[in-house]
Amino acid sequence: MSSKPSAPAKAPSASNTLPQAAVDAPFIRFPPFPVAPEGASIISFSSFKPYGIQMFSKAGEEEEVELDGLNIPTVELRVKHDTDQCKSNKKRRKKKKNGKMTTDANGKRIPWWEEWEEGEELRVTGPGYDPNMSRVDRLFQAAQDFRSGRTWPPAVSGAGNLWDQFRLYSGLLTNTPVYRKSGNKRDGAESPEGFMSDEEDLDMKVIEVPDITNSKRKRPAQDSSLADDGDVDEEENETYKKKKLGSEEDREDRLFVFLDDPEISVKVFLSSFMREQGLIWSERNLITAPTLLSFFLNFLLRNRVFPEATHERGLRSALNVVEQAKKQLPLTFKIGKVIPDEFSGGCKECWGRKGGLSWQSEPVVLPENTDSKAESQVKDFETGLSVDGIQATRVEIPSPDSPSQIVKQIIEDNVGSDVELDISTHNPWANEPSPTATGAWGDIPAQWGPGADTGVQDGSVWDAPASNWADVAGDMEANAASSWSTPVLQSLMPFLGPTVLPLTHTTGIVEFSTRRIKAIHPPSPSPTPSKSSSKSATSANANNDGPDPEQVEDALDRAFAKVVLEPWIGCITMEDSDISRPVIKSSSRGAVVDEFSAGSDAQDVVDSTSGAKPYNPYKDDIVLLVRPAMVEYLTEGMGLGALWIQMVRQEGVQPRAGKRKGKQAGKENKMGETYWYLEDLMCIFPSFYTAREKAGL
């Protein structure tokens, strides 16, 4: 075989012949040195003195400013990093703790969100997020970058806890269910298989089992705790797998709800979810939660984690909800402190409570055949005993809670068992006459004469005999000092003066419902008095001695602000919603439409007897009177769940004839509706409240 001739060797190039040091040498070499710019002086090497960061001789304060050798402060970067710390005195100064609260020049603590706002626009991830990655992976990566790319406040601020709550809610944090293995009730289950402790009792008892193979007794059901260990472990593993699978499916559902519709997801988190988790009872949480979500949503938009147009629109809509929550969530906490106000309290003292709210659990409905089933089991047991030759006798056991049994047991313990006593003849209350109810204001007949004390006393200071009012006042002060807190009686006098409101008006409809704030109107300006008006008022007083309800309504219109409330019926069809159907209390007075025909689509119904339109809690608005100072806490769209009470004119009370003429004749009030007050405020909702069922969570 002939071999091919090899190619001739190439001649070495200049680059191949140069030494390696010459190839890697920089392009610019000195000397020659460049000429110094005009006006600049260059210090010679012999005159140069190096200056670095000063080494403090003593351990300085934690917030001491770092200086160089010329006492010039070092430049602080706008973007904070986890490694930003003084390294010049590392051995003598403690490392700055992560998340320590900083203060301003006046020593006032700076909130953590103000620290985050400084340089927040520069928090951009370097390479960005690969659009080829799935949406779930990009969201997980963005959440991790958001958590690690900033200095978090300490745990007492609650920001870290709320961030974990949001991750649990949105599916970004896995919450694996903890399943505890049930204890085995079988003997020796706590010891490992094939092992017997030396301390265990080795005595064995032989039990003779009678031959009952031919008996007619039913075979007892096998106890589930006596099953094989393998079967029990297999069942427990299956249960754990099902729970884990269900948890994973729920987490994925929550995750896709946030990706597909971030607006509805944020609404649920800031309303119904926080309510279920008990996060709304802390004012700090109501401020921190929307602020934290605002930073996270802006982080997603700034880094274009989801560059698609549909996702960007959804995130911006969610950001608008967060801006509303920043204002309304803290207001929910403040409203609970100031409402009901003094006016509603004065009305309650004037007319009394009209509907105490009570929470009752649903009654447990037992099957109809519960008693028959128990009786059949007893008969089967008696049959089994009779087969074995055992006679069963039923004994009636008296209830231990019976008063006669308790009294008898106490007497026997103290007197002796040889003394026979008839409990019924020793009842000190057997012949005591009970008071009879003669009126609707109470169970005790009230009298003004000397025979008013009829033997029934409530233990108050009014029951004690007193020679003068000073004795009664002293007893009242003593009782008030001994109590936990002195009750404050609210009155209408500070707002209306010596008003005749209790004589002209009374209560009407009493309703418990959730209503949304529709509009807020300030108090009406006071009219300018004139001579003609004063003369007409004088003549009216001369012609009619009774109180004028229109004057009372005008005084209410000028003294209080009006809040128009509309029904909130958006979530009443959902079972687990916090917004329930309207309930008319038994103390209500006035015509109300039928419950089954009072829906939002119901037609207007007019009472044929009186000609007036009955009240419809599903459609009619109400006008709530509040003090003008309460207006700053209320915002249109927010919801209030309370017991609403209507104020109506007394029967037979008519306005004075000739008082109003022309356009004002026959006018109820400037709102065109009757006025209301509230007795109990039970719940407060933001305008964006959304139930979890609406989002499918």
From TrEMBL:
Organism phylogeny: Eukaryota, Fungi, Dikarya, Basidiomycota, Agaricomycotina
Q: Name one GO cellular component term.
A: ARC complex
Per its record, how is this protein called by name? Uncharacterized protein
Compositional bias per record (Basic residues), positions renumbered to this chain? 88-99
Compositional bias (Low complexity): 1-15, 529-540
Q: Please tell me the species this chain comes from.
A: Serpula lacrymans var. lacrymans (strain S7.3) (Dry rot fungus)
Gene Ontology process terms (BP) = regulatory ncRNA-mediated gene silencing
Q: Bias category Acidic residues: which stretches?
A: 226-237
Which parts of the sequence are annotated with region: Disordered?
1-20, 81-105, 179-245, 519-551
